[in-house]
Amino acid sequence: MQLVFATHNENKFKEVKALLPHHIELLSLNDIGCEEDIPETAETIEGNAAIKADYITSYYNYACFADDTGLEVPVLNNEPGVLSARYAGEGKNDRANMEKLLRNLEGKTQRDARFKTAIALSMNGKEVMFLGICTGTITERSRGLGGFGYDPIFQPDGYSETFAEMDLATKNEIGHRGRAIRQLIEYLKE
Ligand code: ITT
């Protein structure tokens, strides 16, 4: 079975590829010749995941799934949320995004946070949504060199390491994306 994963984020692709069974041939946007940045104009992560998956099915005619992820911090009114990629501006700069978040949390003891991943699958004229959540806290400073995005400042509940200090298998086992992707895999078995 061929399935496109509609992401330009190579780290997401690596995480998902490590989870999918071998009978699913995972195609990247490069594999199908899609270089354009698909506009993410919805107000929710579910909406943006659906836009990305629908775009590929409509214009490229492939079965496709897409991931939209947001980091919610309740004490900041759930910011950065759907704006996580562009929190510090249009450049989508991971370091600038983390610095802005740490600045906005300066002096705050309430540092609870959660990652939310919405996976939209568009296949056989139907769309299905899967949601994965991982709760944790935002650390005082960045720790670890692995992962991507906000991983160096996110410490999942029950662990003393940040996601950036863990190996890929552990992040996938407990993380938001892994949780959503395992639901997708179950659905595809049916
Ligand atoms: P695509 O839309 O091409 O999939 P993107 O990097 O723009 O890639 P998102 O809009 O879903 O992806 O990402 C929102 C932000 O959250 C962005 O800054 C990411 O770096 C970050 N992010 C996403 N997943 C993450 C994860 O598992 N760990 C840490 N940060 C993550």
Description of the molecule:
This protein has 190 residues and is α/β, with parallel strands linked by helices. The protein has one domain (2-189): Alpha-Beta Complex (Maf protein). The protein has helices at residues 10-17, 45-60, 94-104, 168-174, 176-189, and strands spanning 2-5, 25-27, 64-73, 79-81, 112-123, 126-138, 154-156. Strands 1, 2, 3, 4, 5, 6 and 7 form a seven-stranded mixed β-sheet that branches. Helix 4 packs across helix 5. The chain is globular, with a radius of gyration of 16 Å. The structure holds inosine 5'-triphosphate (ITT).
Break the fold down into its secondary structure elements and pairings.
Elements: E1 2-5, H1 10-17, E2 25-27, H2 45-60, E3 64-73, E4 79-81, H3 94-104, E5 112-123, E6 126-138, E7 154-156, H4 168-174, H5 176-189
Parallel strand pairs: 1-2, 1-3
Antiparallel strand pairs: 3-4, 3-5, 5-6, 6-7
Helix pairs in contact: 4-5
Inosine 5'-triphosphate binds next to strand 3 and helix 3.
Keyphrases for this structure?
29% helix; 190 residues; 7-stranded mixed sheet; globular; Maf protein; alpha/beta; binds inosine 5'-triphosphate
